[in-house]
Amino acid sequence: xxxxxxxxxxxxxxxxxxxxxxxxxxxxxxxxxxxxxxxxxxxxxxxxxxxxxxxxxxxxxxxxxxxxxxxxxxxxxxxxxxxxxxxxxxxxxxxxxxxxxxxxxxxxxxxxxxxxxxxxxxxxxxxxxxxxxxxxxxxxxxxxxxxxxxxxxxxxxxxxxxxxxxxxxxxxxxxxxxxxxxxxxxxxxxxxxxxxxxxxxxxxxxxxxxxxxxxxxxxxxxxxxxxxxxxxxxxxxxxxxxxxxxxxxxxxxxxxxxxxxxxxxxxxxxxxxxxxxxxxxxxxxxxxxxxxxxxxxx
Length: 298
Ligand SMILES: Cc1cc2nc3c(=O)[nH]c(=O)nc-3n(C[C@H](O)[C@H](O)[C@H](O)COP(=O)(O)OP(=O)(O)OC[C@H]3O[C@@H](n4cnc5c(N)ncnc54)[C@H](O)[C@@H]3O)c2cc1C
Known about the structure:
This protein has helices at 4-11, 29-44, 62-76, 91-103, 133-143, 164-176, 190-203, 220-230, 236-244, 249-269, 284-293, and strands at 18-23, 50-53, 80-85, 108-112, 147-152, 181-186, 210-214, 274-278. Helices cover 47% and strands 14% of the residues. The protein has an 8-stranded parallel beta barrel, surrounded by 5 helices.
């Protein structure tokens, strides 16, 4: 399968935005059937450049993640990236997993530290494992044969007490260790993204693609859940519009499409290399946003 770094490199001279969709591994058989029968065919019809599949909290979806990546690649012919965290696995176990990934034709990895399992407090590296994502990036770089993405945080990572500039130094280290691109955490205020990008490019000399992660708002409960996890700021205007629709998910989703369309239009005008959609395994909003943007590749 193609390296994702090559996809961005080839798109760059044309100015064509690279479109990618993120999925999670369905938790139930019904969820899985619905994903492969409905969600994926609808989104695959939009000809995304690539997809990605998350790695469950605490390393809980290890095999499912690889199996789903392999299935999307073989059945739908879409290059797909496996997320991988350092949670619950030592170096040997990570090496075994990467071996398995290779056997399954997986060439793209999003290298993450991961969050500590709920209720366990601060992140603690497993014995013989890694403390920070840059160590995983270094391992992947040493092994070779993978294109490696890393996570970036336009508002700084929640745990980085020294502030966002320090967190962005840590991000730079991941790139120096061999990462090929950065995908950001979701955000709702583009100015935060531009400040982050300007700092990385202008001050820290980062030259790899910095790709905004966009989450279409589907409901107030969905947004509250994600924002609590990642600490993204929800601008007052958005909070007000959501509060007015608090008990009407359809109206929230409608607002979400309108808001994300405007957000993506602004990002594209400001030269982002692509858009990475956090689809939460739903097709409708993402398809409508792409239609609104005129990125209809059906
Ligand atoms: C696009 C994207 C996809 C994601 N997918 C998943 C997923 O599939 N599964 C999942 O469980 N989680 C996922 N996450 C969440 C991610 O695992 C968490 O945000 C996690 O807390 C941080 O991971 P990281 O790779 O950024 O860690 P790191 O880059 O290791 O950073 C973690 C913290 O350590 C600090 N730090 C880094 N290096 C140093 C150093 N040398 N000294 C001191 N402090 C340092 C950083 O500033 C940060 O506060 C995703 C996040 C994003 C943005």
